[in-house]
């Protein structure tokens, strides 16, 4: 029964090492496969034959083979992940992240009641932003779950990649499912140091499109003029789509220094490039384009002195000549709009708002917006001013066009569109924004406030938070169903100042149902408030866990 | 090695280490409970929560009904009691309460247990003290009848083993190729015959043979190997009287005769290395791997749950328990039964010493001498680096040219990527099972200063 056992050599990637004996193992397998009747195996030791002898021999070989396994030869080792100098997460925060990630795939109330427990998935972006602000390093064991989360939700990617850091990228390179990470967060995946002009120049000339955009954005953020210089070197040879992306990246750090370049781009072969250049120029109130626009606009919009009271007379342009088109005015209106009013809207939008004060005898923006407009041009003119205020980021005009928050949107100045109002609001300073939206909610309730709340800074300032909570309380007392407010509730869970939790506690009790209320609504309301309170508590716990040195 | 001294179970009065979130999550019977528990892990639904000095935790959880559920946990067990109707064990309320305690100290303050909790806790502890006495008089009422029953069963198994031998011989005579054509039916029928013969161990092996022809290239060799090992087991059973004692015990266990754990109890500080469930037909098998700090032994606790119910025993990974383990009979097998526990679960232990890949394979080979049917053996690899290789992954020695391929089954789960992330291309210590299919990682420890886990094992399953 003894036979020499010699390793047949090492094969990479497997621990299996066959040993040679009198009858090769392969022959035994063949006999077994075809049957010992058809292919009798060579007589085993002791001259035994037949299937039982084959099984005996195979059992011996199997056990001997398994007992004599040798290690395989090592493949080439992966490179070490780059070191991450950021400090590790505090233990409590690490556990919290584990929680948030574990809950990610759980159904989050898509159907039926949402229950009283916080919706952890919605808190993940906030947690990541906060962890990045504090500059912590991601726990390596959670990297796979983080990358999986970012793979499923594009809105998480920038946060996750920042948090995952160099080890995250190192890991993502090993798994094709995480390829998205290598395409990179903007500026995050630059192959070389952008502060070295020569390296930047080389990358700009030889890099892939995505790398070049990332490079341009990075340089622009640090040194706007250098980015412009870089772009000018190759501008005439770029493709039209690329030119559009590059010119758009000048939006960052836009200044009078860019005017010459943009003015030249007004004659670009591509219409989209021309339009973008014109838009950027009109956002520069001192530019030559803005002056040309102003000259055109004042011939159309004038104080009307024919009547007793001051009012505005509008004479829309009669044609859209070549010079207007060169300055970015689109000659053909969309279906259903008159061409003259279309041209007027574009002219006023691109005209510096500052000229109107002189034009209307030194009146303030608020006074001008308050003037009556002749011949039913009010809506058209105000809408154009709204767009101009947004484009030129002019808070005085935005304030005037928003009007007082208590005026019903349909009767106020400016625009009735909530989306436009949200944009106007975004040009106001944060605190003023919060107060305006708070007053708006106090006057009109929550049903129209959703978009406006979206532009307010998180966490909501004190008056705004109070006003939202009061409005929810009023809605409950009025007997409405809470799911009519689920959008605002969800926002409140994420945006309300966590310090409000204690004040909200009283609302979590199930109230007696008032006369005429929707049946059962009370229970749902108390559930919704419980969730709100527990989410706020959770958020404050999250923040506390991430704050070094906090108790 | 510390052996049992038979003293009173002692309870330290000092503060008991809280369980971590990971440890609590490891207790969950299934994924659904884990998520449900996480949802209850905020202060919102809880009232009257508190914990006692010996690891008791209690609280009232507001559910959908008018009365809150009363939840009590004795972490020294661990044991759970909840007034909810759930048949999961532990239920989501117990998990939620433990998670709350793990993540928010203030929500579960120290205090005096309320009456409803104390009643159960005290009853439990009384029983724990009394139990050794009750245990002392085991054994069947009528030893003579039991002996006759055992003989009858042995005779039936012998009949089954002979039949199986015949079928294997027929199969080999006609060729394994016919097994491919016959599909599962042939094996299912044979397995059913073995169940009739009261040899569940043989039946399970036969059933596994049925899956091999569909397992990809190289199946004839694998099928021959497994047929041969089955034949070896048959032959061993038919001659079991002539085998030396430990080997005979192994053969009995492999055939499917259950034996009571009757070895000498080993008391030690046991570090929980891994806990995972595998579905096994109609039952769920839970495996808990323990490592004895003093004895250096690795032990396996098996528990079973019937359809829809999870196995009762649960031990969070990374915990160290001071307890007695009673080994099962049979040569060189790691299975044991959890006996008495002493102090409440305490702080982390150090990882097993471990060795290089070559030593791991040698340990498997050595274990095969005592149990040739072993598929794998628990080992710890020290300073290995997860490395991608052609078509898979391997663990390479940090200072050498040897490597162990990972078992194909371990390549698909999330454990592989956790392991790779933990290593970052550097050496890690890995516990797992090493066998002829490769290495199956179960837990890992980071080495070096960027360890986020304070020396606790990171579960990979």
Please write out the topology.
The complex is a heterodimer of chains A (551) and B (461).
Chain A: H1 25-34, H2 50-67, E1 72-73, H3 91-102, H4 120-134, H5 143-152, H6 157-172, H7 180-183, H8 197-206, H9 209-222, H10 224-234, H11 240-248, H12 259-265, H13 271-282, H14 288-298, E2 301-304, E3 311-314, H15 322-326, H16 339-349, H17 355-359, H18 365-370, H19 378-391, H20 395-402, H21 418-426, H22 430-444, H23 450-454, H24 462-477, H25 486-495, H26 501-504, H27 521-546
Antiparallel strand pairs in A: 2-3
Helix pairs in contact in A: 1-2, 3-4, 4-6, 4-27, 5-6, 8-9, 9-10, 11-13, 12-13, 16-19, 19-20, 19-21, 22-24, 25-27
Chain B: E1 2-3, H1 21-27, H2 31-39, E2 46-51, E3 56-61, E4 69-74, E5 79-82, H3 92-103, H4 115-135, H5 143-174, H6 177-182, H7 184-196, H8 200-211, H9 219-238, H10 245-255, E6 266-280, E7 283-292, E8 298-305, E9 320-327, E10 335-341, H11 357-370, E11 376-389, E12 392-397, E13 402-405, H12 415-423, E14 428-435, E15 438-446, E16 458-459
Parallel strand pairs in B: 8-10
Antiparallel strand pairs in B: 1-6, 2-3, 3-4, 4-5, 6-7, 6-9, 7-8, 9-10, 11-12, 11-14, 12-13, 14-15, 15-16
Helix pairs in contact in B: 1-3, 2-3, 5-7, 5-9, 7-8, 8-9, 9-10
How would you describe the overall organization of this protein?
The complex is a heterodimer of chains A (551) and B (461). Chain A has helices spanning 25-34, 50-67, 91-102, 120-134, 143-152, 157-172, 180-183, 197-206, 209-222, 224-234, 240-248, 259-265, 271-282, 288-298, 322-326, 339-349, 355-359, 365-370, 378-391, 395-402, 418-426, 430-444, 450-454, 462-477, 486-495, 501-504, 521-546, and strands at 72-73, 301-304, 311-314. With 551 residues, chain A is an all-alpha fold. Among the domains of chain A are: 1-71, no CATH class; 91-102 and 119-183, no CATH class; 303-318 and 328-417, no CATH class; 429-551, no CATH class. Chain A has a two-stranded antiparallel ribbon with strand order 2-3. In chain A, strand 2 (301-304) and strand 3 form a beta hairpin. By secondary structure, chain B is of the alpha+beta class. In chain B, the strands form three sheets. Chain B has a six-stranded antiparallel β-sheet with strand order 13-12-11-14-15-16. In chain B, a hairpin with a 4-residue loop joins strand 2 (46-51) and strand 3 (56-61). Chain B is globular, with a radius of gyration of 24 Å. Chain B starts with a strand and ends with a strand. The relative contact order of chain B is 0.10. Classes of the chains: A mainly alpha (551), B alpha+beta (461). Chains A and B meet through helix 1, helix 2, strand 1, helix 3 and helix 5 of A and helix 1, helix 2, helix 3, helix 5 and helix 9 of B.
């Amino acid at each position: 029964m003894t036979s020499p056992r010699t390793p047949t050599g090492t094969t990479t990637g497997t621990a299996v090492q066959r040993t040679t004996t009198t009858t090769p193992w392969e022959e035994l397998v063949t006999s077994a496969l075809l049957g010992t009747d058809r292919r009798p195996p060579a007589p085993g030791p002791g001259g035994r034959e037949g299937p039982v002898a084959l099984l005996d021999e195979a059992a011996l070989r199997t056990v001997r083979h398994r007992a004599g396994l040798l290690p395989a030869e090592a493949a080439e080792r992966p490179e070490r992940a780059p070191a991450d100098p950021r400090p590790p997460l505090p233990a409590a925060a690490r556990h919290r992240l584990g929680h948030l990630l574990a809950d990610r795939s759980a159904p989050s109330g898509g159907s039926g009641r949402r229950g009283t427990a916080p919706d952890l998935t919605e808190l993940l972006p906030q947690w990541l932003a906060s962890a990045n602000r504090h500059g912590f390093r991601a726990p390596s064991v959670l990297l796979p779950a983080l990358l999986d989360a970012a793979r499923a939700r594009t809105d998480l990617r920038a946060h996750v990649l920042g948090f995952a850091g160099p080890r995250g990228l190192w890991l993502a390179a090993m798994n094709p499912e995480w390829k998205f990470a290598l395409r990179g967060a903007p500026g995050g995946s630059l192959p070389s140091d952008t502060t070295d002009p020569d390296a930047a120049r080389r990358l700009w000339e030889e890099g892939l499109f995505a790398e070049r955009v990332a490079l341009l954005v990075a340089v622009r953020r640090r040194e706007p003029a250098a980015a412009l210089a870089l772009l000018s070197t190759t501008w005439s040879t770029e493709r039209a789509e690329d030119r559009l992306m590059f010119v758009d990246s000048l939006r960052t750090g836009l200044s009078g220094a860019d005017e010459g370049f943009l003015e030249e781009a007004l004659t670009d072969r591509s219409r989209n490039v021309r339009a973008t250049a014109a838009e950027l120029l009109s956002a520069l109130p001192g530019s030559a384009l803005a002056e040309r626009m102003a000259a055109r606009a004042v011939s159309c919009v004038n104080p009307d002195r024919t009547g007793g009271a001051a009012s505005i007379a509008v004479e829309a342009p009669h044609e859209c000549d070549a010079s207007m088109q060169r300055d970015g005015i689109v000659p053909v209106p969309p279906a259903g709009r008159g061409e003259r009013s279309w041209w007027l809207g574009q002219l006023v939008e691109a005209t510096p708002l500052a000229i109107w004060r002189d034009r209307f005898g030194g009146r303030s923006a608020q006074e001008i917006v308050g003037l009556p407009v002749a011949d039913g041009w009010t809506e058209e003119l105000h809408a154009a001013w709204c767009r101009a205020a947004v484009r030129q980021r002019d808070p005085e005009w935005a304030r005037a066009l928003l009007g007082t928050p208590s005026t019903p949107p349909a009767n106020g100045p400016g625009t009735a569109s909530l989306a436009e109002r949200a944009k106007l609001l975004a040009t106001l300073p944060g605190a003023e924004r919060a107060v305006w939206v708070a007053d708006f909610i106090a006057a009109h309730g929550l049903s129209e406030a959703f978009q406006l709340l979206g532009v307010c800074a998180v966490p909501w300032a004190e008056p705004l938070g109070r006003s939202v909570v009061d409005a929810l309380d009023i809605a409950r007392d009025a007997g409405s169903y809470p799911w009519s407010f689920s959008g605002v509730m969800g926002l409140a869970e994420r945006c309300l100042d966590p310090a409000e939790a204690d004040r909200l506690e009283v609302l979590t009790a199930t109230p007696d149902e008032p006369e005429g209320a929707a049946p059962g609504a009370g229970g749902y309301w108390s559930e919704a408030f419980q969730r709100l309170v527990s989410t706020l508590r959770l958020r404050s716990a999250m923040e506390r866990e991430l704050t070094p040195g906090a108790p | 090695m510390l052996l049992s001294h038979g003293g009173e179970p002692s309870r330290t009065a000092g503060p008991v280490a809280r369980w971590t979130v990971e440890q609590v999550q490891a207790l969950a019977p299934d994924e659904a409970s884990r998520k449900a528990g996480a949802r209850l892990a905020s202060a919102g639904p809880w009232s009257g929560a508190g914990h006692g000095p010996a690891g008791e935790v209690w609280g009232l959880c507001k559910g959908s009904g008018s009365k809150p559920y009363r939840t009590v946990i004795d972490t020294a067990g661990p044991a759970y009691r909840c007034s909810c109707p759930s048949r999961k064990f532990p239920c989501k309320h117990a998990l939620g309460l433990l998670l709350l305690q793990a993540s928010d100290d203030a929500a579960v303050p120290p205090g005096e247990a309320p009456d409803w909790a104390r009643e159960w806790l005290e009853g439990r502890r009384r029983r724990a003290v009394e139990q050794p006495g009750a245990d002392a008089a085991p054994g069947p009422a009528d030893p003579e009848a039991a002996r006759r029953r055992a003989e009858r069963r042995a005779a039936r198994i012998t009949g089954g083993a002979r039949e199986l031998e015949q079928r294997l011989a027929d199969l080999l005579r006609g060729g394994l190729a016919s097994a491919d054509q016959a599909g599962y039916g042939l094996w299912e029928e044979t397995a059913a015959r073995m169940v009739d013969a009261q040899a569940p161990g043989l039946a399970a092996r036969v059933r596994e043979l049925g899956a091999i022809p569909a397992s990809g290239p190289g199946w004839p060799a694998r099928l021959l190997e497994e047929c041969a090992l089955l034949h070896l087991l048959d032959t061993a059973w038919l001659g079991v009287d002539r085998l030396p004692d430990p080997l005979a015990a192994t053969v009995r266990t492999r055939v499917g005769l259950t034996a009571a754990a009757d070895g000498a109890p080993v008391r030690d500080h046991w570090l929980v290395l891994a806990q995972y469930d595998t579905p096994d037909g109609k039952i769920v098998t839970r495996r808990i791997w323990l490592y004895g700090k003093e004895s250096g032994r690795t032990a396996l606790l098996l528990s079973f749950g019937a359809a829809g119910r999870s196995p009762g025993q649960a031990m969070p990974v990374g915990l160290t328990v001071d307890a007695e383990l009673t080994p099962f009979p049979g040569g060189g097998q790691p299975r044991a039964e959890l006996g008495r526990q002493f102090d409440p679960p305490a702080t982390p232990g150090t990882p097993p010493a471990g060795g290089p890949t070559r030593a791991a394979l040698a340990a498997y080979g050595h274990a095969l001498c005592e149990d040739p049917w072993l598929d794998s053996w628990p080992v710890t690899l020290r300073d290995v680096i997860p490395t991608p290789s052609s078509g898979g992954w391997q663990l390479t020695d940090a200072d050498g040219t040897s490597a162990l391929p990972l078992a194909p089954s371990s390549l698909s789960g999330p454990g592989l990527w956790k392991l790779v992330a933990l290593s970052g291309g550097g050496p890690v210590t890995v516990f797992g099972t090493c066998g002829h299919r490769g290495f199956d990682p179960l837990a890992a420890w980071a080495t070096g200063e960027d360890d986020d886990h304070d020396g606790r094992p990171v579960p990979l399953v």
